[in-house]
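Quick look at the format.
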Amino acid sequence: MKTVTLGNTGIQVSAIVSGCMRLNSLDVGEAAGYIEKAVASGVNYFDHADIYASGACEELFGRALAMTKIKREDIFVQSKCGIVPGVMYDLSKKHIISSVEQSLKRLRMDYLDTLLLHRPDALMDPEEVAEAFEILEKEGKVRFFGVSNMKPMQVELLKKHVKQPLVINQLQLSAAHSSMISNGMEVNMLTDGAVDRDGSVLDYCRLKNMTIQAWSPFQYGMIKGPFLLNDEFSVLNGKLKEIAEMHGVSTTIIATAWLLRHPANMQVLAGTMNPKRFEEVCKACEIQLDRQEWYQIYMAAGNILP
């Protein structure tokens, strides 16, 4: 299993993250087996959020982990907070602390390795966030902190008051959803790909030693769903298939390897509960695409080289 350094902590973690958003599709025995298989594959990082199945995924994970022989200190457990589904975003001090405490109770744990702020909150007061982080760190409930889906200036606003390093930014990224790459490639062009939708967040994270966790690595946008085997992305799928056959692997492996090839040393979030698909994602760590293969996939996704 390939490893990456988590932000500026110096700690090595698996390049593949087990995304637990769909964990509640399993029963407790299946969930225990899933966790054991992930760890056996070299994955030591598990991603949660307080809203996943309204907390049921965290609760199931806690019960399932207790059925295994896996030591708590041998894995990284991450959760996110800030979304009140269908109502609002809430990054108030009260909500952050309450969310963490409830997550820990459901997970049957004393601490989270990492806590991410799930989405930007228009009413966020960075001083309140800083107070929440101070309390959570002092009480030993959170080791490291980060954000999710935030632009560089939003991170900078937080850093004005937050003392702890922000070591992660979880962002949507895939071969078919790669605007954070294309806007850096099509500099000074009047093309769609040149539009900077995120404040050069890719370069910013690299400059600030923030680990990017790529979520939805096989999807485009929030609506269209997976691009793999999707006729709307026939050119991309054709190129993935061609390169996959050259390597003797699946297109899932190549689509994952495309992300891992980027020098930003990203983590890839695998949200599948399908054992075969999860195994394929992990095997991507064994594939090193060459430069030409990477660019062929990039252009097959509809991007251009000016």
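Next, a different chain entirely:
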Amino acid sequence: MSLPPYASPVEKVWFWVFRIFCGLILLFLIAPVLVIVPLSFSSGSFLTYPLPGFSLRWYEAIFTSSAWMGALKNSLIVAPLATLLAMIFGTLAAVGLNRAEFPGKGLIVALLISPMVVPLVIVAVGMYFFFAQVGLLNSYTGLVLAHTVLGVPFVVITVNATLQGFDFNQVRAGASLGANPMRVFFTIVLPQIVPGVVSGGLFAFATSFDEVVVALFIASPTERTLPIQMFSGIRENISPAIAAMATILILISTLLLVTMELLRRRSERLKGGAGV
């Protein structure tokens, strides 16, 4: 929002004071994250300021370490699979719940988004006992399913928000022209809700890629993910290698946020075009 040309002096002062205040709050929130980045280029062996010098030795250390690379490999296996399943289940659930009206619908919605509300430790303990009964502990399958459960709520919420502006008369028109429900979904519904599906998928991916509590309960040392490796490193031996990996994760998170913003703008343009 820009300053209107007819604004009074008081409004102009408030305009800039408000923005400076918001900028200071933003800086306060991201400062702890930004502090990590220079530490990843330290030539020393400890996380200290001022830096003794600049070096890429810690990036070399993580890319030549079997432990770090094994953890990264596990995360890159688990997170995409969990994201794909979360996008499928979450999209189907959102479309079904958006169109249907039945008793107990609110309860089902509450159950679907409960992993976002219930403390993660409680979710992890519940999954641990349930997966122990069905033989899914210490396996990639169990870890993928656990992260899928955590990612589904994000997809349900984003897809449901996208469907709020969807005209279901298009579905009826497609059905009246002889298209079966599957073809109607893939040719009419899905292309218009793709921004919501992808946005929810990005949230699900970030949740899985960053999740440590559930993974500690479900995964074995063979399925150790990147967050577990970082957690173990902080607990046992804090080195700038953790800062180097954290910097890489910050970069990945930034790219995800930029992608979500681009998808949001695309969705607004599509809605605007539909409105015209």
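The chain is about 80% helix and 0% strand.

See the schema section for token definitions.
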